[in-house]
Amino acid sequence: MRFIxxxxxxxxxxxxxxxxxxxxLYRGPVDRLFLRKAEREGRTVLTRVRDMARRQFSGxxxxxxxxxxxxxxxxxxxxxxxxxxxxxxxxRCLRCNEPLQEATREEVxxxxxxxxxxxxxxxxxxxxxxGIFWPGxxxxxxxxxxxMNSPVDPL
Length: 155
Ligand SMILES: [Zn+2]
What we know:
Helix content is 30%, strand content 16%. It is of the alpha/beta class. The strands form 2 sheets. It has a 4-stranded parallel beta sheet with strand order 2-1-3-4, sandwiched between helices. The chain is elongated, with a radius of gyration of 17 Å. Bound molecules: zinc ion (ZN).
C-alpha cells in the first residue's frame, strides 16, 4: 500500500514510513491537485479535511478523524491491511521516504559516532539524504507503540 497525506498528518507519515510504507507528505493545499497526484501515483489519500470525502475522487480516501497519533494508527490498521511487521520496519527513510540500503560497518565508519560503530553491527543508508539508521534504544518503545509483542531486533 502506498499513501499520500496532507500536511496536517506529519507525525502519522513518519510512523507509516517507520512501518515501511511508501508515504508522501503533501505540503501544498488540500485541493484537486492533491487528489490528482494521489490518483496518478496510485496512493491512498489520508486527510484531516472532512469535506474531502464528498469530492469526486475515484481512488481510495480516508478521513483521519482522531487527533491522537496512536488512535490514528489504530484506525488505519483496523481499516486497511497494513501491519507493523518486523521485517518491514526501518526499510524507508523517515525524512525523505526513500527505500534504505543495507550498509556495512566499514561503509559507515567515520559517519556515525564511534560508540555506535562499536555497539551496532547492522546499518541502513538513505541514498537520497545520506542519513544512516541503526537499531536505537527507542526500538522497544516503537514495538510497544505499534502493539508488537515480539522482542525481535528490527534490523
Ligand atoms: Zn533520506
